[in-house]
Amino acid sequence: MVRLVAGVDEVGRGCIAGPVVAAAVVFAPGQDIGGFDDSKRLSPALRLKLARRVRSESLAWAVGRAEVSEIDRLNILQATLLAMCRAVAALPVRPDWVKVDGNRYPPLDCPGEAVVGGDASVAQIAAASILAKVFRDQEMQVLDRLYPGYFLGVHKGYPTQLHVDRLSSLGASFCHRRSFAPVRDAMGGGSGS
């Protein structure tokens, strides 16, 4: 019988700087924590408020990550699945079933399913989406202070025109994903594709 369902989602796959971060969230059986939605549809202030609720009201939550070096070595898909596995492994309870946003189920040691659009339809996944987004955004603020001039706190590591322009003038920092085309191009190693 399925009692504990974990929802898992990630943030940062499309970024060219910083880690990919995943979160896993478990609600108590029968618990109904309303108000969650895909983190991309929420304002930063509302995400922060909801993340506090997730941490205080859920039965369990955890965050996992894959570092830039792992992303460059493994590729972004494998690094994302690794971050998801780390988030589930860090949960203080073992879920009976895991629902993962997307179309790929990570190599977890517990059963579950991939749910396309799950961040908009499954409360636990939406909660995980919010938690991962808040965690990663806060980390990008720290990286912004460590690597000034790239405006990482503004674009959160995504390849905006501002970010690409700063890469072109400053070169890549330690937190940039060298396997990604915009970073390779800024370093003079682009293949033109």
TrEMBL record:
Endonuclease that specifically degrades the RNA of RNA-DNA hybrids. One of its GO terms (molecular function) is manganese ion binding. Residues 3-192 form the RNase H type-2 domain. This is Ribonuclease HII. Its EC number is 3.1.26.4. It is found in: Cytoplasm. InterPro entries: RNase_HII (IPR022898), RNase_HII/HIII (IPR001352), RNase_HII/HIII_dom (IPR024567), RNaseH-like_sf (IPR012337), RNaseH_sf (IPR036397). It comes from Methylococcus geothermalis. GO terms for biological process: DNA replication, removal of RNA primer; mismatch repair.
